[in-house]
């Protein structure tokens, strides 16, 4: 194989020829007649006219060679369930689920919303949707009713697949009441709700709407449901992600481009091989779960571990125990999880036989050098940082070990991945900047296969949000600051917008503000992301209340803080709960009324609040400082 530099250059200079040479990695039911249609930038269509199916590539395609090899390995340290499905068994379950969905009226192009804990049925449902050409929209199980209602209203699913309950640290986390509330709030209620009953929590059922998975599965035991051959650009799924407005964006993914991009990345970035085991510790509700718990490993003919539980139950050695037990070769996690493990006994890292494991990949948030060193030295394995987003679906920056195993640099996710023409632009002038100068990380079009093709139902928003923020440039903005060194290695320096990253989970400060504002005693609120040694960032809220009589004593303030947190828990989910809610009498704003978020954040982090010439009332900053210092 050629070296990284020439490989990357070829992918940028002539994307069509490059991706044509990658497309053989998947099964095409009908060949494509054009590799790339970029006649309507920034909308790119890959493998035009080709027909394929994600489920076929993930499951059916392997039946002959790997039918009796493990495909899906489910481990729940929450319920004690541990079970493996071979490719043939997975095929059977997916066909049953596909049969059920069809019996509920789901047809090609219909949306199916999947609101599930980490259970195998969530994976069956995703694959079943792909099989019948339905568009899945998986909503992370940690989100609550308002988050869910927003997504229901945007995706307008015909069916929702859900369960009675998740489980966290051995305690049931019931789902059904949140789902019922979301449906009550929504303007587009689903026709049917398919419920997996794990027996963890009581659930009420709505007659005529709610149906039972186990009962329907028994009816559809022998169903064989043919794959729907989708044109390459037809959507496979929608995945919502937070932005700068209160309304999450539905990232729309295609079918053929995504399959090719994942298949290529499995070899060229993750170096996974057929018959081996991949273990990504994320959740199916996030993009890593879509790409590298489910589709990527299965497309590559690998078995994949679906893990429900925390990294420290029954003890901090659980993940390494699984590596030994299932001979995991490739592992994918997030820096926060490693920082959690850092607080455990380091001997746990050496307790199990890790000889099968080649590399630990980490992504989702900045990887600090001490954490990277600690885990790499502790395991005696290389750690590879990789940088990407829900929007791209697979890495933008990484050391591509399957192309050329170049050395990594601590603090850097590495070099632009083939297919990505990564640039840095000055935010104000739009001019491109060179090595050593901070700029906005952007990608010149076309985005490679597998990246978002549009915002679901809103092409204009795709263009205005992502492609129009840099003066004079039509380039895709990642909304991350970055810097490149003389060797071409990138370093990510944080977001340019109001998106925050809590333990690798992306949250919009506006969404949290909207939720807090719905509390009856809140007049005004500002939420900022503040650096945190464990979670990378946490949300901190500053609120102005309507009735100060309710927060006079410290006890009242504590109770009020808890009550505001409860509102966020119920509406958005505990993931979005601010770490602190402070009370002030006014927020720092410019004379034109713009909230000075950056200054608030700087003060929270003990830094200089920056240019304050436009501030209306400087005493508001003193209040912020006093609140933070407690
Ligand atoms: P999400 O779409 O939830 O995956 O979040 C994507 C965002 O997480 C990026 O835009 C970055 O801000 C951040 N991010 C992801 N991976 C990395 C990484 N390896 N290093 C630094 N930041 C990262």
Task: Show the helix and strand layout.
Layout: H1 4-13, H2 15-20, E1 34-40, E2 43-48, E3 51-52, H3 54-58, H4 63-66, E4 70-76, E5 82-86, H5 87-103, E6 111-115, H6 120-132, E7 135-138, H7 145-155, E8 159-163, E9 165-168, E10 171-174, H8 176-185, E11 192-196, E12 210-212, H9 213-219, E13 230-231, E14 237-241, E15 249-253, H10 256-268, E16 277-280, H11 287-299, E17 303-308, H12 318-326, E18 328-333, H13 335-341, E19 359-363, H14 369-379, E20 383-387, E21 397-398, E22 415-416, E23 421-425, E24 439-444, E25 454-455, H15 459-466, E26 475-484, E27 490-495, E28 499-502, E29 505-508, H16 509-517, E30 522-532, E31 536-545, H17 554-571, E32 580-583, H18 597-604, H19 619-629
Parallel strand pairs: 4-17, 6-7, 6-8, 7-14, 8-11, 11-12, 16-17, 16-18, 18-19, 19-20, 31-32
Antiparallel strand pairs: 1-2, 3-13, 4-5, 9-10, 14-15, 15-25, 20-21, 21-22, 23-24, 24-26, 26-27, 28-29, 30-31
Helix pairs in contact: 5-6, 7-8, 10-11, 18-19
């Amino acid at each position: 194989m050629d070296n990284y530099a020439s490989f990357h250059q070829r992918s940028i200079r002539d994307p069509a020829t490059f991706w044509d040479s990658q497309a053989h990695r998947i099964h095409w039911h009908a060949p494509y007649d054009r590799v790339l249609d970029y006649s309507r930038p920034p909308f790119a269509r890959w493998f035009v006219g080709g027909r394929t199916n994600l489920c076929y590539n993930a499951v059916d395609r392997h039946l002959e060679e790997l039918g009796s090899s493990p495909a899906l390995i489910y481990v729940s340290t929450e319920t004690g369930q541990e079970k493996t499905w071979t490719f043939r068994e997975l095929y059977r379950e997916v066909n049953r689920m596909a049969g059920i969905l069809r019996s509920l009226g789901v047809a090609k192009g219909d949306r199916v919303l999947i609101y599930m804990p980490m259970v195998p049925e969530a994976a069956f449902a995703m694959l079943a949707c792909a099989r019948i050409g339905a568009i899945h929209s998986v909503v992370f199980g940690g989100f609550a009713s308002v988050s869910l209602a927003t997504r229901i209203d945007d995706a307008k699913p015909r069916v929702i697949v859900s369960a009675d309950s998740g489980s966290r640290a051995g305690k049931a986390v019931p789902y059904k009441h949140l789902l019922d509330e979301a449906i009550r709030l929504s303007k587009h209620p689903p026709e049917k709700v398919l419920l997996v009953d794990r027996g963890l929590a009581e659930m009420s059922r709505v007659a005529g709407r709610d149906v039972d998975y186990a009962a329907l599965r028994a009816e559809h035991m022998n169903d064989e449901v043919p794959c729907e051959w989708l044109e390459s650009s037809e959507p496979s799924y929608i995945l919502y992600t937070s932005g700068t407005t209160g309304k999450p964006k539905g990232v729309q993914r295609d079918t053929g481009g995504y399959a090719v991009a994942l298949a290529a990345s499995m070899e060229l970035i993750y170096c996974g091989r057929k018959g081996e085991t991949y273990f990504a510790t994320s959740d199916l509700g996030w993009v890593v779960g879509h790409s590298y718990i489910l589709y990527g490993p299965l497309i590559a003919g690998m078995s994949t571990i679906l893990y429900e539980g925390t990294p420290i139950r029954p003890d901090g050695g659980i993940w390494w125990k699984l590596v030994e037990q299932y001979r995991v070769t490739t592992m994918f996690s997030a820096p926060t999880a490693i920082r959690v493990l850092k607080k455990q006994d380091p001997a746990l890292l050496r307790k199990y036989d890790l000889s099968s494991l080649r590399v630990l990949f980490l992504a989702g948030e900045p990887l600090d050098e001490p954490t990277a060193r600690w885990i790499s030295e502790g395991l005696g394995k290389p750690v590879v940082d990789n940088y990407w987003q829900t929007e791209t679906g697979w890495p933008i920056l990484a050391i591509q070990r399957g192309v050329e195993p170049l050395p990594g640099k601590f603090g850097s996710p590495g070099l632009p991945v083939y297919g990505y023409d990564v640039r840095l632009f000055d935010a104000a002038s739009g001019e491109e900047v060179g090595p050593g100068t901070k700029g906005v990380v952007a990608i010149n079009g076309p985005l490679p296969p597998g990246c978002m093709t549009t915002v679901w139902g809103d092409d204009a928003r795709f263009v205005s949000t992502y492609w129009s923020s840099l003066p004079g440039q039509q380039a895709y903005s990642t909304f991350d600051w970055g810097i490149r060194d003389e060797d071409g290695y990138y370093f990510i320096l944080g977001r340019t917008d109001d998106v925050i990253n809590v333990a690798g989970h992306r949250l919009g400060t506006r969404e949290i503000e909207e939720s807090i504002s719905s509390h009856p005693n809140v007049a005004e609120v500002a939420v900022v992301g503040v650096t945190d040694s464990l979670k990378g960032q946490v949300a901190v809220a500053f609120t102005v209340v309507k009735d100060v009589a309710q927060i006079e004593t410290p006890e009242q303030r504590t109770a009020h803080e808890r009550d505001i947190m409860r509102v966020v828990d119920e509406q958005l989910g505990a993931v979005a709960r601010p770490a602190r809610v402070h009370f002030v009498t006014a927020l720092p704003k410019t004379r034109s009324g713009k909230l000075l978020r950056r200054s608030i954040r700087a003060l929270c982090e003990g830094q200089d609040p920056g240019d304050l010439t436009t501030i209306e009332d400087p005493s508001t900053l003193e209040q912020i400082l006093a609140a933070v210092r407690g």
